[in-house]
Amino acid sequence: MNTRTLAAALVGATLFGLTPAQAAPKPKAKQAGAVTVTVTNSRKADLVQLEAAKSGSPDWKEVLGPLKSGKQASAKLPQASDCRFDLRGTFDDGQSTDASGINVCTDKTLNLTD
């Protein structure tokens, strides 16, 4: 294609509202996905599982499996509009612990204690 034909094609495309930058739609920016929280098990008992639900929701999901006493691991929680979650930990000594309304966007650490 010579220069004159290319120029004519670009002028024609511009007249019809098409330019190379507009020809393909831009992909939308990805919304924030999961929030990663560092969980430290400072209890004497091993953690069996950690569950999370958006604050006030009955839909609990396991976000972390077994975690030995004295160890830490990362848990991924889905993004909530207000970042608030209810958390429930179950331990191998038969005990459990609950925390409500935790803002995981401002505090990305969770320390499980006796």
Concise account of the structure shown:
The chain is mainly beta. The protein has two helices and seven strands.
Note the beta-strand portion: 35-45%
Helix content: 10-25%
Strands ordered across the widest β-sheet: 3-2-5-6
The major beta sheet can be summarized as: 4 strands, antiparallel
Question: Which characteristics define this entry?
Answer:
single chain, 114 residues, mainly beta, four-stranded antiparallel β-sheet, three-stranded mixed β-sheet, 2 helices, 7 strands
Structural description of this entry:
- The N and C termini lie far apart (76 Å).
- This protein has a four-stranded antiparallel sheet with strand order 3-2-5-6, with no helix packed on it.
- It contains two helices and seven strands; from the N terminus they run H-H-E-E-E-E-E-E-E.
- Strand 5 and strand 6 form a beta hairpin.
- It is globular.
- It has 114 residues and is mainly beta.
- The N terminus is likely disordered.
Task: Note the topology.
Elements: H1 3-15, H2 20-23, E1 35-41, E2 47-54, E3 61-64, E4 72-77, E5 84-91, E6 96-103, E7 109-112
